[in-house]
Write a structure and sequence with these properties.
Helix content: 25-40%
Radius of gyration: 19 Å
Largest sheet: 7 strands, mixed
Number of helices: 10
Distance between the termini: 12 Å
Strand content: 25-35%
Bound molecules: zinc ion
Shape: globular
Order of helices and strands: EEEHEEEEHEEEHHEHEHEEHEHEHEHE
Length: 318
Protein backbone atom coordinates (compact mmCIF):
# COMPACT_ATOMS: atom_id res chain seq x y z
CA UNK A 1 0.00 0.00 0.00
CA UNK A 2 1.00 3.65 -0.29
CA UNK A 3 1.68 5.60 2.90
CA UNK A 4 3.00 9.06 3.71
CA UNK A 5 5.99 8.46 5.94
CA UNK A 6 7.51 11.12 8.16
CA UNK A 7 11.08 10.71 9.40
CA UNK A 8 13.35 13.43 10.79
CA UNK A 9 10.97 16.10 9.64
CA UNK A 10 10.86 14.87 6.04
CA UNK A 11 7.74 13.54 4.37
CA UNK A 12 7.77 10.93 1.61
CA UNK A 13 5.03 9.01 -0.14
CA UNK A 14 6.24 5.41 -0.19
CA UNK A 15 5.16 1.89 -0.92
CA UNK A 16 5.05 -0.15 2.31
CA UNK A 17 3.52 -3.21 3.94
CA UNK A 18 -0.23 -3.18 4.51
CA UNK A 19 -0.70 -3.23 8.33
CA UNK A 20 -1.63 -6.56 9.88
CA UNK A 21 -4.28 -6.74 12.57
CA UNK A 22 -2.95 -7.53 16.02
CA UNK A 23 -5.20 -8.80 18.80
CA UNK A 24 -8.68 -7.35 18.44
CA UNK A 25 -7.69 -4.72 15.91
CA UNK A 26 -9.88 -3.65 13.04
CA UNK A 27 -8.41 -3.09 9.56
CA UNK A 28 -9.79 0.01 7.88
CA UNK A 29 -9.42 1.04 4.26
CA UNK A 30 -8.93 4.80 4.59
CA UNK A 31 -11.22 6.98 2.46
CA UNK A 32 -10.42 10.52 3.61
CA UNK A 33 -7.90 12.07 6.00
CA UNK A 34 -7.58 15.67 7.13
CA UNK A 35 -4.31 17.52 7.68
CA UNK A 36 -4.20 19.08 11.12
CA UNK A 37 -1.93 21.74 12.63
CA UNK A 38 -0.57 18.96 14.87
CA UNK A 39 0.66 17.14 11.74
CA UNK A 40 2.44 20.30 10.60
CA UNK A 41 3.92 20.72 14.09
CA UNK A 42 5.14 17.10 14.14
CA UNK A 43 6.94 17.63 10.84
CA UNK A 44 8.50 20.70 12.49
CA UNK A 45 9.60 18.61 15.50
CA UNK A 46 6.81 18.81 18.10
CA UNK A 47 7.18 15.06 18.84
CA UNK A 48 10.99 14.63 18.86
CA UNK A 49 12.13 11.59 16.92
CA UNK A 50 8.71 10.85 15.44
CA UNK A 51 9.04 8.41 12.62
CA UNK A 52 6.15 6.68 10.93
CA UNK A 53 2.85 7.45 9.29
CA UNK A 54 1.14 10.68 10.39
CA UNK A 55 -2.61 11.34 10.31
CA UNK A 56 -5.25 11.11 13.03
CA UNK A 57 -8.32 12.75 11.44
CA UNK A 58 -9.87 10.28 9.05
CA UNK A 59 -12.65 7.97 8.12
CA UNK A 60 -12.76 4.81 6.11
CA UNK A 61 -14.53 1.48 5.73
CA UNK A 62 -13.86 -1.64 7.76
CA UNK A 63 -12.26 -4.38 5.71
CA UNK A 64 -11.36 -6.93 8.40
CA UNK A 65 -12.65 -7.33 11.97
CA UNK A 66 -13.49 -10.13 14.40
CA UNK A 67 -16.96 -8.60 14.73
CA UNK A 68 -18.54 -9.37 11.33
CA UNK A 69 -21.21 -6.68 11.86
CA UNK A 70 -18.49 -4.04 11.43
CA UNK A 71 -17.38 -5.13 7.95
CA UNK A 72 -18.09 -2.43 5.39
CA UNK A 73 -19.16 0.14 8.01
CA UNK A 74 -17.98 3.74 7.71
CA UNK A 75 -15.85 4.35 10.78
CA UNK A 76 -13.29 6.59 12.40
CA UNK A 77 -11.21 5.95 15.53
CA UNK A 78 -10.56 7.63 18.87
CA UNK A 79 -6.89 8.48 18.68
CA UNK A 80 -5.66 7.48 22.17
CA UNK A 81 -5.10 3.72 22.34
CA UNK A 82 -4.92 2.85 26.04
CA UNK A 83 -3.61 -0.22 27.88
CA UNK A 84 -6.99 -0.84 29.54
CA UNK A 85 -5.34 -2.10 32.74
CA UNK A 86 -3.73 0.79 34.63
CA UNK A 87 -5.25 3.05 37.31
CA UNK A 88 -5.97 5.78 34.76
CA UNK A 89 -7.78 3.35 32.46
CA UNK A 90 -9.73 1.93 35.42
CA UNK A 91 -10.90 5.44 36.26
CA UNK A 92 -12.09 6.10 32.70
CA UNK A 93 -9.09 8.31 31.91
CA UNK A 94 -7.89 6.29 28.91
CA UNK A 95 -6.79 9.48 27.20
CA UNK A 96 -4.20 9.88 29.97
CA UNK A 97 -3.03 6.25 30.12
CA UNK A 98 0.76 6.49 30.54
CA UNK A 99 1.18 3.45 28.28
CA UNK A 100 -1.05 4.75 25.52
CA UNK A 101 -0.11 5.02 21.90
CA UNK A 102 -1.72 7.77 19.86
CA UNK A 103 -2.76 7.26 16.25
CA UNK A 104 -0.38 9.14 13.97
CA UNK A 105 1.28 10.95 16.90
CA UNK A 106 2.89 8.61 19.47
CA UNK A 107 4.26 5.14 18.63
CA UNK A 108 1.43 4.19 16.29
CA UNK A 109 1.05 4.64 12.58
CA UNK A 110 -1.63 7.03 11.42
CA UNK A 111 -4.12 7.41 8.62
CA UNK A 112 -2.10 9.04 5.83
CA UNK A 113 -2.06 5.61 4.22
CA UNK A 114 -4.36 3.38 2.24
CA UNK A 115 -4.94 1.16 5.30
CA UNK A 116 -4.81 1.55 9.06
CA UNK A 117 -5.28 -0.97 11.88
CA UNK A 118 -6.85 0.33 15.11
CA UNK A 119 -8.07 -1.34 18.32
CA UNK A 120 -11.72 -2.46 18.25
CA UNK A 121 -12.53 -0.34 21.32
CA UNK A 122 -11.32 2.79 19.53
CA UNK A 123 -13.44 2.19 16.44
CA UNK A 124 -16.46 4.48 16.14
CA UNK A 125 -19.19 3.89 13.56
CA UNK A 126 -20.19 7.15 11.87
CA UNK A 127 -23.96 7.60 11.48
CA UNK A 128 -24.95 7.40 7.79
CA UNK A 129 -26.65 10.80 7.82
CA UNK A 130 -23.44 12.69 8.59
CA UNK A 131 -22.02 14.22 5.41
CA UNK A 132 -18.38 13.74 4.49
CA UNK A 133 -17.32 17.25 5.55
CA UNK A 134 -18.68 16.56 9.05
CA UNK A 135 -17.31 13.02 9.27
CA UNK A 136 -13.77 14.23 8.58
CA UNK A 137 -14.03 16.78 11.43
CA UNK A 138 -15.13 14.45 14.24
CA UNK A 139 -11.68 14.33 15.89
CA UNK A 140 -10.96 18.08 15.93
CA UNK A 141 -14.59 18.82 16.84
CA UNK A 142 -14.24 16.48 19.84
CA UNK A 143 -11.10 18.42 20.83
CA UNK A 144 -13.05 21.68 20.54
CA UNK A 145 -15.87 20.29 22.70
CA UNK A 146 -13.42 19.19 25.40
CA UNK A 147 -13.31 22.84 26.55
CA UNK A 148 -16.92 22.55 27.75
CA UNK A 149 -16.18 19.19 29.41
CA UNK A 150 -13.46 20.86 31.47
CA UNK A 151 -14.93 24.23 32.42
CA UNK A 152 -18.43 25.56 32.91
CA UNK A 153 -19.09 28.79 31.06
CA UNK A 154 -21.98 30.87 32.38
CA UNK A 155 -24.06 32.92 29.94
CA UNK A 156 -23.03 36.09 31.83
CA UNK A 157 -19.31 35.39 31.50
CA UNK A 158 -17.17 37.14 28.92
CA UNK A 159 -15.16 34.81 26.70
CA UNK A 160 -12.27 35.62 24.37
CA UNK A 161 -11.03 33.13 21.79
CA UNK A 162 -7.48 33.82 20.60
CA UNK A 163 -6.94 32.41 17.11
CA UNK A 164 -9.02 31.94 13.96
CA UNK A 165 -7.50 28.79 12.44
CA UNK A 166 -8.82 25.24 12.04
CA UNK A 167 -9.33 24.37 15.71
CA UNK A 168 -10.37 27.90 16.71
CA UNK A 169 -13.12 27.81 14.07
CA UNK A 170 -14.55 24.66 15.62
CA UNK A 171 -14.24 25.95 19.20
CA UNK A 172 -16.02 29.14 18.13
CA UNK A 173 -18.77 27.15 16.44
CA UNK A 174 -19.33 25.01 19.53
CA UNK A 175 -19.44 27.94 21.97
CA UNK A 176 -21.74 30.02 19.75
CA UNK A 177 -24.10 27.05 19.27
CA UNK A 178 -24.33 26.78 23.05
CA UNK A 179 -25.41 30.43 23.27
CA UNK A 180 -22.15 31.71 24.77
CA UNK A 181 -21.31 35.30 23.80
CA UNK A 182 -17.92 35.20 22.19
CA UNK A 183 -15.20 37.64 21.15
CA UNK A 184 -12.51 36.39 18.77
CA UNK A 185 -9.08 37.96 18.24
CA UNK A 186 -7.47 36.61 15.08
CA UNK A 187 -5.12 37.55 12.30
CA UNK A 188 -7.07 36.75 9.15
CA UNK A 189 -10.09 38.85 8.20
CA UNK A 190 -11.56 36.10 6.00
CA UNK A 191 -11.39 33.54 8.81
CA UNK A 192 -12.75 36.02 11.35
CA UNK A 193 -15.66 36.73 9.02
CA UNK A 194 -16.68 33.04 9.18
CA UNK A 195 -17.06 33.37 12.96
CA UNK A 196 -18.67 36.80 12.72
CA UNK A 197 -21.40 35.35 10.50
CA UNK A 198 -22.18 32.92 13.30
CA UNK A 199 -22.54 35.72 15.84
CA UNK A 200 -19.05 36.36 17.28
CA UNK A 201 -17.53 39.82 17.81
CA UNK A 202 -14.24 39.75 15.97
CA UNK A 203 -11.06 41.82 15.99
CA UNK A 204 -7.77 41.98 14.17
CA UNK A 205 -4.81 42.54 16.56
CA UNK A 206 -4.26 46.22 15.64
CA UNK A 207 -7.92 47.08 16.35
CA UNK A 208 -8.11 45.17 19.58
CA UNK A 209 -7.99 46.78 23.02
CA UNK A 210 -7.88 44.01 25.60
CA UNK A 211 -10.72 44.65 28.01
CA UNK A 212 -10.34 41.86 30.54
CA UNK A 213 -12.27 38.64 29.99
CA UNK A 214 -13.44 36.04 32.51
CA UNK A 215 -12.26 33.20 30.25
CA UNK A 216 -9.68 33.24 27.47
CA UNK A 217 -9.22 30.24 25.17
CA UNK A 218 -5.83 30.18 23.45
CA UNK A 219 -6.06 28.28 20.15
CA UNK A 220 -3.76 30.33 17.95
CA UNK A 221 -0.99 27.74 17.86
CA UNK A 222 1.54 30.51 18.48
CA UNK A 223 3.37 31.54 21.66
CA UNK A 224 2.19 35.15 21.02
CA UNK A 225 -1.32 33.83 21.49
CA UNK A 226 -0.44 32.77 25.00
CA UNK A 227 1.06 36.19 25.75
CA UNK A 228 -2.13 37.80 24.45
CA UNK A 229 -4.28 35.47 26.54
CA UNK A 230 -2.36 36.47 29.68
CA UNK A 231 -2.80 40.15 28.84
CA UNK A 232 -6.56 39.77 28.32
CA UNK A 233 -7.69 37.66 31.28
CA UNK A 234 -9.27 39.15 34.42
CA UNK A 235 -7.80 38.53 37.86
CA UNK A 236 -9.06 35.09 39.06
CA UNK A 237 -9.94 34.35 35.43
CA UNK A 238 -9.25 31.16 33.48
CA UNK A 239 -7.04 30.55 30.46
CA UNK A 240 -7.74 27.37 28.49
CA UNK A 241 -4.72 26.29 26.44
CA UNK A 242 -5.51 24.36 23.26
CA UNK A 243 -2.25 24.98 21.37
CA UNK A 244 0.75 22.71 21.28
CA UNK A 245 3.94 24.52 20.29
CA UNK A 246 6.84 22.88 18.48
CA UNK A 247 9.35 25.01 20.36
CA UNK A 248 9.45 26.26 23.94
CA UNK A 249 9.31 29.94 24.80
CA UNK A 250 10.13 32.12 27.76
CA UNK A 251 7.41 33.57 29.91
CA UNK A 252 7.31 35.16 33.31
CA UNK A 253 4.63 33.42 35.41
CA UNK A 254 4.41 36.32 37.90
CA UNK A 255 1.16 37.66 36.45
CA UNK A 256 -0.40 34.18 36.76
CA UNK A 257 0.50 34.22 40.46
CA UNK A 258 -0.36 37.85 41.20
CA UNK A 259 -3.69 37.69 39.36
CA UNK A 260 -4.46 34.15 40.57
CA UNK A 261 -5.14 32.89 37.05
CA UNK A 262 -6.23 29.29 36.48
CA UNK A 263 -4.45 27.64 33.54
CA UNK A 264 -6.33 24.68 32.04
CA UNK A 265 -4.56 22.47 29.53
CA UNK A 266 -7.02 20.94 27.08
CA UNK A 267 -6.45 18.23 24.50
CA UNK A 268 -8.62 15.53 22.92
CA UNK A 269 -12.30 15.03 23.56
CA UNK A 270 -14.90 12.30 23.28
CA UNK A 271 -15.95 11.38 19.75
CA UNK A 272 -19.46 10.53 20.98
CA UNK A 273 -19.91 14.18 22.07
CA UNK A 274 -18.79 15.42 18.66
CA UNK A 275 -21.15 13.07 16.83
CA UNK A 276 -23.97 14.16 19.14
CA UNK A 277 -23.23 17.80 18.29
CA UNK A 278 -23.24 17.07 14.55
CA UNK A 279 -26.57 15.27 14.85
CA UNK A 280 -28.15 17.99 17.01
CA UNK A 281 -27.04 21.13 15.15
CA UNK A 282 -26.47 19.68 11.64
CA UNK A 283 -23.82 22.33 10.85
CA UNK A 284 -22.82 22.71 7.22
CA UNK A 285 -19.06 22.43 7.62
CA UNK A 286 -18.32 22.59 3.90
CA UNK A 287 -16.74 26.04 4.54
CA UNK A 288 -14.11 24.31 6.69
CA UNK A 289 -12.71 22.34 3.74
CA UNK A 290 -10.27 24.57 1.85
CA UNK A 291 -8.93 21.99 -0.58
CA UNK A 292 -9.00 18.32 -1.52
CA UNK A 293 -6.08 16.41 -3.02
CA UNK A 294 -5.77 12.88 -4.33
CA UNK A 295 -3.44 10.92 -2.03
CA UNK A 296 -0.80 10.79 -4.77
CA UNK A 297 -0.43 14.57 -4.26
CA UNK A 298 -0.06 14.38 -0.48
CA UNK A 299 3.12 16.49 -0.44
CA UNK A 300 1.40 19.30 -2.35
CA UNK A 301 -1.49 19.00 0.10
CA UNK A 302 0.90 19.55 3.02
CA UNK A 303 2.31 22.66 1.34
CA UNK A 304 -1.22 23.92 0.82
CA UNK A 305 -2.13 23.28 4.49
CA UNK A 306 0.74 25.58 5.59
CA UNK A 307 -0.67 28.49 3.61
CA UNK A 308 -2.29 31.57 5.11
CA UNK A 309 -6.07 31.62 5.10
CA UNK A 310 -6.26 27.85 4.60
CA UNK A 311 -8.52 25.76 6.82
CA UNK A 312 -8.84 21.98 6.43
CA UNK A 313 -7.01 20.25 3.59
CA UNK A 314 -8.35 16.77 2.86
CA UNK A 315 -6.51 13.82 1.32
CA UNK A 316 -8.65 11.50 -0.79
CA UNK A 317 -7.42 7.91 -0.74
CA UNK A 318 -10.24 6.45 -2.82
ZN1 LIG B 1 -5.84 17.01 14.77
ZN1 LIG C 1 -3.77 2.39 30.82
Amino acid sequence: MKALLCANGTLALQECEKPERRGNEVLIRVSRAGICSTDLEIVRGYVPGFSGVLGHEFFGHVEEADDASLIGKRVTAEINCACGKCDYCNKGMQRHCPRRTVIGIVNRNGAFAEYIAVPRENTIVIPDELPECSAILIEPLAAAMEVLEQITIGKEQSVLLVGDGRLAQLIGRVLLSEGISLTVAGKHQSKLDLLKRQGARTFLPDRFSPSPFDIVIEASGKPEGFVRALACVKPRGTIVLKSTYAGGFQFNPSSVVVNEISLVGSRCGKFSEAIGFLQKYKPDFSYMISARYPFSQALEAFEKAKGKGVLKVVLEME
